[in-house]
């Protein structure tokens, strides 16, 4: 909102002098000239006129009441005398004759200082005295109709010297250097720059600025004028996308489009982002939007069956999926539109409920010479944030405190000063023993984060050539991108190419061709997973490993035997410290390489049958292949293992998708007032996947780190396909540019659903009313555009497994006569009534443009209800299965969105602001016939719940209600079933249901990862050749389930810990910071502090300085044959303000599992980047 006031107040300043005048009567002298001079002084404006047109004109001396309105006074003075005025600047007016036809003689114009307050008197033509060293330049400025433009500002670039054109568009001024550049600017016209050179006469034509209402936006199966759109669509230009130096285009969307949540849950190079448009609409089906690339619909398929999951990893600890759209070079994107409401997305029917992202790649321009472009940048990356952990001294005190508290509580004869020998005599429980490294510190203080995080390079190079003739246009590009990971053995490399060609071989026929092959190579270190996964996570292993452990042995080899498992006493194996693998050993001995080759290709033919009626045949194909090789070396010792357990895995997949579409489009204006545009068509699409996997182990050595080097123990293949046949139609009707109607319908027939429900129809309707075109609005000259719009529609979601509706058979071995026999058995139950999840959405919006769109505001309210949710429900045991997938359940998302674009300052210095805000509320309305909640397990048991009245996948656990300070408080509190031996310093848990005890029935919703609202703000500045862009974005109200607190903040001191545990509860006299309980090695047996609870839920709100870019465009006079040259420096993720203790407040280890979102269990941190780049065109 601050942005709105900035942009708005500057425009209001144009009228402020008039409004601040007292309401009094103006006595008019007899001469018009004198009256105008008085008005200029009174209102502090400049009024320009030629003496000849007002000579001899007298006005009535009688006072006129105009309430201090300058323009009203001017009208009353000028209209009776055949004169009129035009506004040429903020505080400048030009008087001229009405409908002048005869050419006037040029008049010399007095130079004025532009950008300063106008003098409070009338400017009159005077002679410009020419210096002996000055160059006199004269000329005329005309518009697109060859009419002279009065009041045009002409500035000598780099100075405050200039002039304005007279009533006929003529000007005259002097410059001191033939290299001087003149800047011609006028409200509503495109600014133009010209070098004087040896010219003394310069005639200039200014082109009218394209109104934002006339901008063409890409919609499904066509384009529309922005002013005619009645749906809700967000857009980004190529410039917006390139402003942030990111690996893929999806990250560039973050914070720039209202209603679109983009999360970067992992900082691993090449990792996928998570995008949600207007909330989460499904529990079991997918929530990713549909992507349409140059007309080709693709889904962001991150199925492990395609990319090749690691067999020995459980789903909860799977590596983050590689981004399947990471093959797209953002430098090739011309525009990006997000279809958010049903009216905009219904043209994609069963795939539109999660929103649609339209990507249009660059094409050449007709009738232009070849333009060669080269863009490059090089940068350095480092970890954006380090977690604050204990050092050796702090951990030593913490371990002793934890061990002693458990020992003193459980052993009646215990003494805090007992040595381990004495403790061993009283109890053999290793939880009471002080490990040797802490009983007798060696002075080792290892910073494990410092060892695993590196400063590494990132680089990008792109070259392109584009242009066209009158009958064809072309665009060719090639790019190379290489990003090293801040953790060794991780990185992302991409080679990309693109060719777009359009040609008109004969009149009315257009043929187009597009091809985009690309190759990526991703090094996937197992960074983002718990330390106990297989293979273990690098980051989490570094966090839990004690700083008392040395990373290397004396001989220089990696220390894999002195991990925390070695922290034992002289009495035997019993220190009860957690074992973790050396993170340096994981980096060295675990390799995981993923190669992807992807090609998009399309060919289209478009023929204009008659004027306005076109037929288009579009064919496209998407071929996508993955090859993955994984190896864990024999030399690697996992945690406390004494021998290696090598294994290898190889995956290969080929996915191809083809599309054929036939469409008819019609665009015609009738009798000037009626405009109709329509499209109808037929679409057929088919997708096939072939994948296989081989697994080997028992490698005798590491000389052959592959499948062939070991014993093949298992394998498998995966073949799937789906198809979709559709009919579609859309009609847009506009009457006099002010009444707008749109109707859309699409019918889809999908192979994924039951026999009786394969076909679904998805209609939508929308309407708009441009009030600004109404007669009653004409007097409000400040209002450029005012449009009300509303829409209703239905869309679907077909992102379910390909064979969910039919019963499947799987291999099943059984024993017969002591012989293993291969067989098959049912693995899923069929449901021939399975159908789409359907989303009904209502949207009301307003678009408001002021002052020639210098201030533009767009606001939306929406409500979308998704019904027929796909959920697994219990079925009778006689069926042979525990659950079956059925269409039951309902979820609602409703919210508001606000976008403000403001051009705050225009001229030699410019300042513009883009701001967006969105808030969404997600609620489950129905869940099956009984309404029973759905409990979900993530990385650490049941900690999520989907229940009526709460958001999908909310966190589920106990509510912390402070810390016990005395035994009397414990005795008076409800009995806690999980804290049979609670002591002062333990967490107190709330009796939620009020039954006088604390047990499992008191678990409740304790937060969710969905934010209350999101926002983004970008300020752009330019002056002379300099440009500066500053981009902030953030979210408020999201929560994170920080599962790392199960080890790094549980009080047991079995691992290293967050530093906030140095402020733990010690005693009633020393209660710490009031939120951290006491240390206790056996808390699960005593106070139950480590149970799922609100203690592990943290505030994920953040405010981030996403990027700053400072650039300089060199003057053309310095470039010779180079058309343009810009150099810039940029930084991303420079600053993040958050209360979250972990690396990244966007973390989401289970991004692919809807019901268990928002977990942090050791994710790859984000990086902070600094880059230097060049943009060159020839």
UniProtKB/TrEMBL annotation:
Question: Per the record's keyword annotation, is Transmembrane included, yes or no?
Answer: yes
Localization (cell): Cell outer membrane
- TM region positions: none
Bilayer topology annotation: Multi-pass membrane protein
Q: Per the record's keyword annotation, is Transcription included, yes or no?
A: no
GO cellular component terms given for this protein: cell outer membrane
- Keyword entries, A-Z: Cell outer membrane, Membrane, Receptor, TonB box, Transmembrane, Transmembrane beta strand, Transport
What name has this protein been given in UniProt? TonB-dependent receptor P3
């Amino acid at each position: 909102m601050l942005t709105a006031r900035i942009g708005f107040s500057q425009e209001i300043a144009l009228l402020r002098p008039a409004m601040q005048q007292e309401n009094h009567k103006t006595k008019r002298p007899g001469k018009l000239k004198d009256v105008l001079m008085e008005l200029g002084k009174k209102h502090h404006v400049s009024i320009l006129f030629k003496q000849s047109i007002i000579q001899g004109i007298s006005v009535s001396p009688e006072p006129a009441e105009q309430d201090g309105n300058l323009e009203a006074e001017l009208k009353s003075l000028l209209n009776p005398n055949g004169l009129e005025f035009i506004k040429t600047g903020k505080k400048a007016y030009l008087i001229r004759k009405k409908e002048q036809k005869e050419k006037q003689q040029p008049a010399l114009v007095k130079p004025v200082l532009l950008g300063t307050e106008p003098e409070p008197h009338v400017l009159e033509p005077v002679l410009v005295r020419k210096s002996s060293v000055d160059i006199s330049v004269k000329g005329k400025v005309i518009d697109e109709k060859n009419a002279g433009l009065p009041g045009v500002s002409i500035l000598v670039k780099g100075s405050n010297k200039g002039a304005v054109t007279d009533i006929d568009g003529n000007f005259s001024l002097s410059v001191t250097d033939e290299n001087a550049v003149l800047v011609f600017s006028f409200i509503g016209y495109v600014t133009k720059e010209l070098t004087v050179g040896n010219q003394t006469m310069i005639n200039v034509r200014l082109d009218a600025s394209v109104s934002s209402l006339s901008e063409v936006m890409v919609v499904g199966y066509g384009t529309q004028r922005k002013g005619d759109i009645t749906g809700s669509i967000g857009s980004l230009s190529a410039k917006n996308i390139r402003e942030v130096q990111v690996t893929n285009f999806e990250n560039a969307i973050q914070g720039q489009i209202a209603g679109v949540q983009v999360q970067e849950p992992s900082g691993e190079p090449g990792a996928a982002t998570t995008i949600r448009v207007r909330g989460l609409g499904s529990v079991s089906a997918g929530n990713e939007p549909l992507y349409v690339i140059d007309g080709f619909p693709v889904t962001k398929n991150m199925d492990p069956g395609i990319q090749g999951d690691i067999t020995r990893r459980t789903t909860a600890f799977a590596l983050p999926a590689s981004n399947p759209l990471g093959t797209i070079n953002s430098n090739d994107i011309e525009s990006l539109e997000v279809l958010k409401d049903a009216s905009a997305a219904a043209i994609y029917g069963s795939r539109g409920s999660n929103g649609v992202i339209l990507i249009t790649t660059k094409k050449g321009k007709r009738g232009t010479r070849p333009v060669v472009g080269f863009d490059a940048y090089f940068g350095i990356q480092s970890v954006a944030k380090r977690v604050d952990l204990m050092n050796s001294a702090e951990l030593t005190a913490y371990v002793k405190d934890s061990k002693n508290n458990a020992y003193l509580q459980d052993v009646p004869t215990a003494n805090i000063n007992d040595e381990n020998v004495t403790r061993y005599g009283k109890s053999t429980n290793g939880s009471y023993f002080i490990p040797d490294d802490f009983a007798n510190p060696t002075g080792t203080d290892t910073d494990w984060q410092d060892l695993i995080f590196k400063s590494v390079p990132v680089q990008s190079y792109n070259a392109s050539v584009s242009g066209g003739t009158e009958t064809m246009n072309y665009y060719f590009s090639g790019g190379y991108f290489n990003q090293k990971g801040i953790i060794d053995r991780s990185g992302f490399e991409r080679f990309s190419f693109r060719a777009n060609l359009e040609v008109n071989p004969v009149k009315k026929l257009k043929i187009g061709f597009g091809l985009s092959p690309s190759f990526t190579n991703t090094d996937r270190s197992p960074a983002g997973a718990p330390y106990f996964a297989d293979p273990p996570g690098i980051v989490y292993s570094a966090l839990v490993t004690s700083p008392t452990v040395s990373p290397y042995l004396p001989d220089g080899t990696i220390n894999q035997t002195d991990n925390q498992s070695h922290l034992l006493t002289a009495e035997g194996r019993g220190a009860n410290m957690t074992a973790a693998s050396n993170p340096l050993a994981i980096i060295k001995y675990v390799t995981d390489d993923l190669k992807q080759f992807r090609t998009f290709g399309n060919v289209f033919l478009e023929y204009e049958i008659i004027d306005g009626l076109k037929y288009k045949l579009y064919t496209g194909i998407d071929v996508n292949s993955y090859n993955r090789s994984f190896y864990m070396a024999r030399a690697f010792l996992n945690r406390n293992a004494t021998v290696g357990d090598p294994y290898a895995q190889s995956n290969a997949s080929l996915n191809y998708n083809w599309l054929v579409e036939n469409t008819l489009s019609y665009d015609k204006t009738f009798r000037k007032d009626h405009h109709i545009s329509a499209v109808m068509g037929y679409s057929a699409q088919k997708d096939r996947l072939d994948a296989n996997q081989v697994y080997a182990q028992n490698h005798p050595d590491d000389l052959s780190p592959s499948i062939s080097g070991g014993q093949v123990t298992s394998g498998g293949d995966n073949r799937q396909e789906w198809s979709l046949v559709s009919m579609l139609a859309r009609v847009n009707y506009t009457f006099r540019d002010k009444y707008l109607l749109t109707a859309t319908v699409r019918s889809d027939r999908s192979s994924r659903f039951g026999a009786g429900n394969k076909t679904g129809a998805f209609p939508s309707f929308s309407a708009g009313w441009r009030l600004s075109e109404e007669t009653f609005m004409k007097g409000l000259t400040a209002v450029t555009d005012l449009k009300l719009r509303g829409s209703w529609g239905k869309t679907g979601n077909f992102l379910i497994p390909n064979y969910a509706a039919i019963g499947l058979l799987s291999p099943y071995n059984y024993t017969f006569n002591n012989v293993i026999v291969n067989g098959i058995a049912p693995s899923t139950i069929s449901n021939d009534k399975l159908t789409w999840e359907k989303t009904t959405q209502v949207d009301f919006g307003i678009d408001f443009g002021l002052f020639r769109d210098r201030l533009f505001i767009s606001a939306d309210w929406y409500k979308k209800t998704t019904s027929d949710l796909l959920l697994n429900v219990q079925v009778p045991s006689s069926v042979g299965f525990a659950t079956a997938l059925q269409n039951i359940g309902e979820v609602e998302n409703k919210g508001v969105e606000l976008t403000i674009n403001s051009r705050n300052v225009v001229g030699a210095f410019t300042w513009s602001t883009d701001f967006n805000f969105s808030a969404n509320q997600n609620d489950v309305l129905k869940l099956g016939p009984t309404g029973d909640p759905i409990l979900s397990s993530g990385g650490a048991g049941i900690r999520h719940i989907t229940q009526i009245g709460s958001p999908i996948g909310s966190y589920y656990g106990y509510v912390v209600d402070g810390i016990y300070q005395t035994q009397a408080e414990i005795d008076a509190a409800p009995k806690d079933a999980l804290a049979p031996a609670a002591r002062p310093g333990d967490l107190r848990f709330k009796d939620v249901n009020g039954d006088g005890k604390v047990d499992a029935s008191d678990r409740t919703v304790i937060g969710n990862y969905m934010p209350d609202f999101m926002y983004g703000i970008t300020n752009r500045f330019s002056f002379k050749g300099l440009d500066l862009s500053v981009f902030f974005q953030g979210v408020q109200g999201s929560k994170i389930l920080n599962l790392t607190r199960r080890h790094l903040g549980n009080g047991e001191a079995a691992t290293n810990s967050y530093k906030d545990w140095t402020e733990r509860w010690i005693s009633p006299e020393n209660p710490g910071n009031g939120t951290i309980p006491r240390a206790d090695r056996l808390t699960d047996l005593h106070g139950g502090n480590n149970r799922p609870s609100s203690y592990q839920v943290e505030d994920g709100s953040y405010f981030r300085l996403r990027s700053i870019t400072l650039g300089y465009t060199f003057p053309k006079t310095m470039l010779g044959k180079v058309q343009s040259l810009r150099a810039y420096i940029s930084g991303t993720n420079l600053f993040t303000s958050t209360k979250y203790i972990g690396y990244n407040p966007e973390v989401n280890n289970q991004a692919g599992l809807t019901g268990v979102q928002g977990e942090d269990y050791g994710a790859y941190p984000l990086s902070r980047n600094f880059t230097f780049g060049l943009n060159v065109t020839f």
